[in-house]
Amino acid sequence: MDDLVQNWRAVDDYLVDTLVDDDDTLRQARAASHAAGLPPIEVAPNQGAFLALLVRLVSGRRVLEVGTLGGYSTIWLGRAVGPTGRVVTLEVDPHHAEVARGNLERAGLGAVAQVVLGPAVDSLDALIAAQPEPFDLVFIDADKQNNARYLAAALRLTRPGSAIVIDNVVRRGAVVDPDSADPDVQGTRAVLDLVGAEPRLTATALQTVGSKGWDGFVLALVRA
Ligand code: SAH
Ligand code: DHB
Ligand code: MG
Would the keyword Methyltransferase be found if you checked this record's keyword annotation (predicted)? Predict the structure, then answer.
């Protein structure tokens, strides 16, 4: 397994070097987050680039992110919506939110990305009550126990043609254990059941390997 992980990492490094513009701003954001003690659980550069491509594929102008951390994925999303677009990103940890605001400011995205501090369930309730324009893409990447609630909120905040991405649904294969005592696994299994049963969504999930290990994500399209 260790050999495999080394290979995955080497291939990711090669792919990122070859295809992905992991520029100084992105590198600095990662470095600042790690220096501030944040866990290194941001998306890999090629995953960030993938999210940005998805935003462009749905011609996304408005993106909602659940789980900001240091704003690394937010930078990818913020660049993809363009200077007149908007990213609303929800974070419960004040330290994470502060680090993210600094990183977003340095990335020139202070006016594009809004970090909303508080439990995402509450922030989503407030957003729904405010009846904003629909979001074109929702990236769900926070506490996995609440993923079912985040999906329900995402369905109320999107439109036909919007995309919903749910991160970390494989977790080294742990997801296949129905008796898992890990609440993250149970949260993931619950949201996968909901996605599968939801007539408003057409969805799939893909496993990923790379610099962040073995994981995967759901991609869902809100149906017309
Ligand atoms: N999207 C980020 C990584 C997010 S890590 C990136 O790829 O760069 C998950 C984040 O979700 C952490 O910062 C954590 O503090 C936050 N989080 C955990 N529980 C939360 C909750 N209930 N509400 C909002 N954010 C939460
Ligand atoms: C964890 C959370 C994430 O969002 C992620 O991408 C990787 C790991 C975690 O909680 O360990
Ligand atoms: Mg994640």
Answer: yes
Ligand nearest to the backbone CA of 68 = 1
Which of ligand 1's atoms lies nearest the C-alpha of 90?
A: 24
For the Cβ of 90 lying below 6 angstroms from any atom of ligand 1, the answer is yes
Domain of 124 in residue numbering reads as: 1-223
Instruction: Give the amino acid at 27.
Output: R
Angle between helices 24-35 and 72-81 (to 10 degrees): 150
- Our count of domains for the chain comes to 1
Spatial separation of the C-alpha atoms in residues 2 and 42, rounded to whole Å: 21
pTM: 0.98
In the chain, how long is the greatest CA-to-CA distance?
50
Token pair recorded at residue 23: 């520029």
User: Distance of alpha carbon 42 from its chain centroid, rounded?
Assistant: 9
pLDDT digits (tens, 9 = 90+) for 25-67: 999 999 999 999 999 999 999 999 999 999 999 999 999 999 9
What CATH number did the domain enclosing 102 receive?
3.40.50.150
CA atoms within 13 A on the CB side of 89: 33
Query: Does 42 sit in the ligand 1 pocket, CB within 6 Å?
Result: yes
